[in-house]
Amino acid sequence: MITALSILSLLLIITAALTLVRHNFWIFKVFEYPRLQKLFLMVGCLVGWIAVWPALTTFHLVLFILLLAFSLFYCSRILPYSTLWPKEIKRMPPSAKNVDLKLFAANVLQDNREYHRLLKQIKDMDADIVFLLETDEGWAQAMKELEATYPYKLLQPIDNTYGLLFYSRLKILSGKVLFRVKEGVPSIDAIVELPNGRPIQIWGLHPEPPVPGENLFSTAKDKELMKVALLARECKLPCIVFGDLNDVAWSHTTKLFRKTSGLLDPRIGRGFYSTFSAHHWWVRFPLDYIFCSTDFGLVRMKRLPPNGSDHFATFVHLVYEPRLEPVQSGLEARKEEIKEAREMATQEVEQ
């Protein structure tokens, strides 16, 4: 038992230490994803070490102390996404002043052809804006019936798993599909008009993740996230960023995004709302997000049931309420963090 505990403890310590290295190579990023799963394993190992405490050597004690330290560190990063933490966005009732905004977002999984399941979810949720990712021409054709309900659209179907479809019931005052960082990886930049006439800036993203065989570095993802974070920081309109960001909530990059943009995360104080993987309950991470400016309140947030994709779809109902702006605040960025964000936003990326 002691040998097994030693091996598992050592592996957990090494993978935890790798995530502390600030480098964009994939191996320093990938172990950030299963932080909750690793925390459970660490706690299990700590209990195991306590059970065999009389037999511990100095080496085993060092492993125990390191495991305990990393467990406490992981708890500090994960705790904000539990109900024990204060909520970052205040709960609000639905409004009767035409300032509600309902958003539906889903990574559909390009090869998934169960179109009817997603269409049913969209109809059931009755969102104002629908944002679909990993959409090829087959998905674009299957979703055509949405155009009767959503007259405004920005469509960029591509068969490389980065296609996107953006449908809006609200008038799009200005909108475009941009390739901010790499050809073949589009994003949405749109201003929509609420029924009361208030314009809202929306960015829809699906950056490229660091995955062996596809992209060994997180440079492209980090660059796109920081470019949008800096835009949101300077934006004078109420603004929203949403989509599959291919990053976990507790990563250094996501935290830097939140600090730089000043946007709020409705997950804080409410839960993980893990969206990937829909196929395996034991390996789930929060990869799909919505962030909003401080002048929004939250009516409802929901992770929807499986729809054939490897991601769960998400639904968020917000209310635009300027009176919330003075009483809500996100993370604040230090000067060196803004500098880091700007450096990441301007780094070179291989096409």
From TrEMBL:
Top-rank taxon, per record: Bacteria
Claim: Nuclease is one of the keywords in the record: yes
Keyword line: Endonuclease, Exonuclease, Hydrolase, Membrane, Nuclease, Transmembrane, Transmembrane helix
Membrane-spanning ranges: 6-27, 39-56
Domain named Endonuclease/exonuclease/phosphatase: residues: 107-311
Pfam family, one: Exo_endo_phos
InterPro entries (alphabetical): Endo/exonu/phosph_ase_sf (IPR036691), Endo/exonuclease/phosphatase (IPR005135)
A GO term for molecular function: exonuclease activity
Keyword Membrane: yes
Protein name: Uncharacterized conserved protein YafD, endonuclease/exonuclease/phosphatase (EEP) superfamily
Organism listed in the record: Cnuella takakiae
